[in-house]
TrEMBL record:
Keywords: Kinase, Membrane, Phosphoprotein, Plasmid, Transferase, Transmembrane, Transmembrane helix, Two-component regulatory system. It comes from the Bacteria. Its EC number is 2.7.13.3. It catalyses: ATP + protein L-histidine = ADP + protein N-phospho-L-histidine. GO terms for molecular function: phosphorelay sensor kinase activity. Pfam families: 2CSK_N, HATPase_c, HisKA, SBP_bac_8. Residues 187-238 form the HAMP domain. It comes from Salipiger profundus. This is histidine kinase. InterPro entries: 2CSK_N, HAMP_dom, HATPase_C_sf, HATPase_dom, His_kinase_dom, HisK_dim/P_dom, HisK_dim/P_sf, SBP. Residues 246-461 form the Histidine kinase domain. It is found in: Membrane. One of its GO terms (cellular component) is plasma membrane.
Amino acid sequence: MTDLRAHSLKRRLLVSMAAGFGALLLIISILLWNYARDASNRTFDLLLAGAALSVLERVSYNTDGPTVDLPQSAMDILALAADDRIVYRVFSPKYGELTGMADLPLPDTSGPSAEPVFYNADLDEGFRFVLQGRQITSSAGREWVFVQMGQTLNARKDQQLSLFLNGMGGLAVVSLIGLGFVWLAIRASLAPLHQIADTLLARSPRDLSPIEGDPPQEISGLFQAINGFIAQLGRNRALTERFIADVAHQTRTSLSALQGQLALASDAETPEALRERLGRTSAQAERTVRLTNQLLSNAMVSHRSEEAQLEPLDLRPLVRNTLAELLRERRLRKATLSFDDAGLPDGRGRIRGDAISIREALRNLIDNAIRHGGEDNTIVIRLDGDETTITLTVSDAGPGIAPADRLRATERFTSINRATAGSGLGLAIVRSVAEGHDARLTLGTSRLGGLRASILFRRLAVMLLAGLLALIAAPRAEADELLVHAATDPAAMRPLIEAFEARNPAVDVVYHDYQTVDLYQELLDPSPETVPDLVISSAMDLQVDLVNRGLAHRLRVPQAWQPPEWASWRSELFGFTFEPAAILYDRRVLPESNLPTSHRDLSSFIRDHEDELRGKIGGYDLRRSGIGYLFATQDTIQSVQAQRLMEVLGRANIRTFNTTASMVQATREGRICMALNIISSYAMALVADDPNIGVHFLDDYNLVMTRSAFVPRGARNPVRAEAFIGFLLSPEGQAILDAETPLFSLMPPAGGLTPPALPMPRSSTNFLPIRLGPSLLTFLDRIKREDFLRNWDSTLMGDPGP
């Protein structure tokens, strides 16, 4: 019996310390995780509460009931969680929904309250909400108005994970230091093991005596195990030496007998005596050869068993080929040999095995049957099996082996029948083959009355059904068609599409051109048949709104190709161009030296030349042009002159157009002499060969938009669409943008700007990029949009362009 106390040191230092450290870290990690979750919730709840409060402060009452002017600051506050989608609504129990998304989930509260109520709810993904109310004075008295705002949990989870990992990082350092001390303690405690190692290294190979000494209690078990292993080596060496001695004895005896028969033959005096002596000599030579072959076979089988060279194979052809070889030998001509494989499942005997070893075992079984079977022997070889086992059986009509002798018959150099004795290795070889294949050798009485030797192999299951299921489950080939819906001039995108198709010959890009607002409306409620694979638009705010609704796939773009932070959102929406807003002007009417240099100067310039410019200034129709509405709303955020400029343009009878191209054409024809907030990249390409038309940038700021792309949910070919976006952002795609299209690349090319060139570097502070994110949703609020457009209509009163 092993003394359990012998393992006390190992248990105490390894198990106890590891379990203690593990339990302590587990408890601390649970506490830290909960703390990180509460801390992140507190942080982001403050953002929600601040945004809700800023909206409540803008709630007012008019003759139609309560209304709200959604503040830009509310969206800016929520945009601090840059990757989170947001939803909101403002409602009154009496007047219903005022603005925002209807039917957002409400908390289980007892009644209206001016205190913020925080809760979690699921829409298409998890959201954190705040509900806060305020009483306003109406003609009927005090009435409640509520603001409900929610954002997804991505930023919270990221902060929670960051706090948790930072805390666990410190604990990990402390744990490593502690484990270092444990390691030093273990080394000091197990120093006696080095003494044992030195003792073993100093011994000669033949010294297998036990190690002497008085080890510490903690390593006494190891000490005893080493001595036990040494004793086992001694027994194995004794068995090997005994086997070698038996081999030497058997070989020496056989060779001596052969030598004696040859000596007797040489002393024969008559031809008859000589013939008799030579016959005995031949028989002895045959026994000697057989013994030698059996010894070599036993050594080979033992070696291959140790090497475990097992491979899938079919026993049926292996047995057939072996029998075909044996039937050519003279000694099998007197025996009746038959083979039956009707019992094989599916007609196959698949196992994992070594063909050479199994062939040697079958040869020995058949040779054993021939030797002991007598003159009129019948030998039957059978292969049968079931779902788990394949059985190889050799039966003969000989005398067989008594049940009491069957176990002894498989030992080396053991012959049961002295009259037909051979080397005594045949069944021993078969047993070694069986053991090497994790099979089982059984001996019994055959139906013919002789010996039945069976080797039971484990069957190798061939799962045809699994292969069929894998084939069915294999992903279907992607469609060759890539459907793109875009609000971008097809001519501008054609070089990019052709380059992508050239690198992907199996892809056919189908491109449909839209106005920005029309494209947005189609995607709000698409049918499954019309969902595109890729959406591209210059209307950044409309693109953000679609993504914020959960309509986009998250994409994987290589880190080296990631756009600047302002030009991507949630790894779902990616900008790929750099396109500043500019002023288009007619050089025949407006000399460049007289042009305004800032937005303040622009208002004064138009006011001072109102009579000359009346009906000669062009701008976007904000109801039809998404990019025009985007530039106009962003101007109101960036410039205090926006309202003044709007009033001045109204007095000057601004004319409205849907596209930059239509404003360029009107300028060429002299119908207008100035167009505001045009897309400079388009304009520069259109007027490159026209010396009468110029493009002018202001010195204070020029808004920069980016054309953005996303892959909508429900796309039939999202993988190809993701590859197309990656191509747009790759150095190759960006170079094609600069060299072959009228658009400006998002990232500057390595060789500098290509014509038509910007008047200043992209990094200039005069260029003010519009950031993709939730703040763009402010002016998409229904009430705010209607108020803005109503103010635009009433202020400008401009004539629409033809």
